[in-house]
Design goal:
Blueprint lengths: L5 H17 L5 H17 L3 H26 L5 H31 L16 H17 L8 H9 L12 H9 L7 H38 L4 H32 L17 H7 L2 H15 L6 H19 L3 H20 L7 H23 L3 H11 L8 H24 L4 H9 L3 H25 L11
Helix pairs in contact: 1-2, 2-6, 3-4, 3-5, 3-6, 4-5, 8-9, 8-16, 8-18, 9-14, 9-15, 9-16, 11-12, 12-13, 13-14, 14-15
C-alpha cells in the first residue's frame, strides 16, 4: 500500500485516525497497541510471506538485544551476540538482494543458461527496517540501559507504518522516549500540523515527481530503442534528477507528517540538496538518515577522520562501497557509489568541500548539479553499458536526428516545461521569504491563505491520484 493511493488516503488513514482518536485518553501502551495493529495491517497488505519475515526480524532482534543486555550485566562477552545479530540482518539482505544476482553471474561465467533461475522477490522496505533493527541492537550494545523489555514497543519501532517501507531511517535512541511518553496528546493542533506536512509531501510526489517520471522513463526507453536525441537526453536526465528528489523527499515529508500526528518526531531527511555548492555539502543534505547511519555505525567505528590520511580514505571507500551495495544488486549502483567516493576523496584532498566566495559558490553549485545529474543517469540506467551510452548521447555521441526523434523531443519538451519550472523553483529554500510575508500580514489572513493553499494542493493531488495509473515510488525498489 502506497501513501499516494485511494486506498490509503480514503480508507486506511481515516480508519487509523478514528481508532487513535477513540483511544486518545488511554495509556501510552494502549495507543502504541493501536498503532502497532494498524502498522501490521498496513504491511500485511504486501503479502503474508513478507509479513512473516518482518515478524521474524522483530523477534530475532528483540532477543539479541536482551541477550546483549543480560550478558553485560553478567560480565559475559556480549560482543558475540552483536556479531550474530549483524550476521543475521546482513544475511537477510544478502539472501533477498544478492543471492539471485550472484547465481546468475556465476552461471554466466560458466556459460550456462540463466533462464531457469528463480528470482527471489525483494520484500518491501527490507533495507529500511533492517537498518532500523540494527540501530536498536547496536545502541543496546553501546548502552545496555537502552534495552526495551516490552516486545510490542520494539515491534512498533521497527514496523511503524509511516516510515516502514521507505524511511526516514529512525534511530532507536531518538524515538525511545516517544514510545514511552508522547510529548503531546492527540489533538487538532498536532493533526493540523501533521496533515499540512503530509499534504506537501503528497503534492511533491503526485503533482511533480510522477510527471517528471513520465519524461525520464520516456527518455530511457528511447535510448534503449536507439531513438534518443541529445536534447531529449538532457531533458530525461533533468527530469530524473527532479523525479527522484520529489519522489523521495515527498515520501519523507508524508512520513514525518504522519509521525507528528501521532506524537513522534522523525528526523529531517532532506534539506534542499540541490542548492549545494559541493558534493560533500550535497550528502549532508540528501537522504540524511542514511548517510548519518553509515557515519555513526560504520565510518566512525572504523576510525572516521581521526586517523592517518590513507586510513581515512579507506574508511571513506568502505562507506561508499556499502552505500552502493545497499541500494541493490546492479553494477550501476556499485559504479555510482565508487564515483561518489572518488569525487569526495578529491574534495577532501584538495580542500574544496565548501566554497566561501560568491563566484566560487556559483561555480561550485554548477559543478555539483552537473556531477549529481550525470551520476543519477548511472543510478537510473539498467546497466553500465546503457549508462555510458546515455551519457554519450547527452554529449552528442549517439544522438539520433531523424524526424520521429526530433518530433518526440519537441512534443515532450512542450509538455515538460511547465512542470519543470515548478519543480526547479520548489528546490530552493523559501522559508525566510515566507516568514517575511507572514510578518507583514495578520495571523488570521496568513492562516487563511495557507489553508486555501494546502487544501488546493490536497484536492489536486487526490484528483491526480485517482485519475492516473502511473504512480511509481523510486525507493520502494530498495
Amino acid at each position: 500500500m502506497v501513501f499516494a493511493s485511494g486506498t490509503f488516503l480514503f480508507i486506511f488513514l481515516p480508519v487509523t485516525l478514528a481508532g487513535y482518536w477513540l483511544f486518545r485518553n488511554k495509556s501510552v501502551n494502549v495507543l502504541n497497541g493501536c498503532l502497532l495493529a494498524m502498522s501490521m495491517g498496513f504491511y500485511l497488505n504486501s503479502g503474508i510471506r513478507q509479513f512473516v519475515l518482518l515478524i521474524v526480524s522483530v523477534v530475532v532482534n528483540y532477543i539479541f538485544a536482551l541477550l546483549i543486555s543480560k550478558s553485560v550485566q553478567k560480565c559475559f562477552p556480549h560482543k558475540i551476540f552483536l556479531v550474530l545479530a549483524i550476521i543475521y540482518n546482513i544475511g537477510m539482505l544478502f539472501v533477498f538482494k544478492y543471492l539471485t544476482f550472484i547465481r546468475i553471474e556465476v552461471l554466466k561465467i560458466a556459460g550456462m543458461d540463466t533462464r531457469h533461475v528463480m528470482e527471489i522477490v525483494l520484500p518491501l522496505g527490507i533495507s529500511f527496517y533492517t537498518f532500523q533493527a540494527l540501530s536498536y541492537v547496536i545502541d543496546v550494545y553501546r548502552n545496555s540501559e537502552l534495552v526495551e523489555k516490552n516486545i510490542f514497543n520494539v515491534a512498533l519501532y521497527i514496523s511503524f507504518f509511516p516510515q516502514l517501507i521507505a524511511g526516514p531511517i529512525v534511530r532507536w535512541d531518538s524515538i525511545r522516549d516517544d514510545l514511552r511518553m508522547r510529548l503531546w496528546k492527540f489533538g487538532w493542533g498536532g493533526v493540523d500540523h501533521g496533515l499540512q506536512r503530509f499534504t506537501i509531501g503528497l503534492g511533491k510526489k503526485v503533482i511533480i515527481a510522477n510527471q517528471m517520471g513520465i519524461f525520464a522513463d520516456k527518455a530511457f526507453s528511447l535510448q534503449a530503442s536507439g531513438n534518443l536525441t541529445t536534447g531529449f537526453a538532457w531533458m530525461g536526465a533533468i527530469a530524473y534528477t527532479l523525479q527522484i528528489y520529489y519522489d523521495f523527499s515527498g515520501y519523507s515529508d508524508m512520513a514525518i507528517g504522519l509521525g507528528y500526528i501521532f506524537g513522534f518526531r522523525f528526523p529531517e531527511n532532506f534539506k534542499h540538496p540541490y542548492i549545494s555548492s559541493s558534493i560533500t555539502e550535497f550528502w549532508r543534505r540528501w537522504h540524511i538518515s542514511l548517510s548519518s547511519w553509515f557515519r555513526d555505525y560504520v565510518y566512525i567505528p572504523l576510525g572516521g577522520n581521526r586517523c592517518s590520511k590513507s586510513r581515512n580514505l579507506l574508511n571513506l571507500f568502505v562507506v561508499w562501497g556499502l552505500t552502493g551495495i545497499w541500494h541493490g544488486a546492479n553494477y550501476t549502483f556499485w559504479l555510482w557509489g565508487f564515483c561518489y567516493f572518488f569525487i569526495l576523496m578529491i574534495e577532501k584532498l584538495t580542500g574544496q568541500r565548501k566554497f566561501q566566495f560568491p563566484m566560487k559558490k556559483i561555480v561550485g553549485h554548477i559543478y555539483t548539479l552537473f556531477v549529481v545529474m550525470l551520476l543519477w543517469v548511472i543510478f537510473r540506467a539498467d546497466s553500465v553499458s546503457m549508462a555510458v551510452s546515455y551519457i554519450r548521447t547527452m554529449f552528442g555521441g549517439n544522438s539520433v536526428e531523424n524526424a520521429y526523434a526530433i518530433g518526440v523531443t519537441g512534443l515532450y519538451f512542450r509538455n515538460m516545461i511547465g512542470y519543470g519550472l515548478i519543480a526547479v523553483i520548489g528546490c530552493a529554500p523559501w522559508n525566510k521569504l515566507i516568514e517575511r510575508i507572514k510578518s507583514k500580514m495578520s495571523m488570521y489572513r496568513f492562516d487563511m491563505i495557507n489553508t486555501v493553499w494546502i487544501l488546493a494542493v490536497f484536492i489536486i493531488a487526490c484528483c491526480m491520484t485517482l485519475d492516473g495509473d502511473y504512480n511509481p515510488f523510486v525507493y520502494f525498489n530498495f
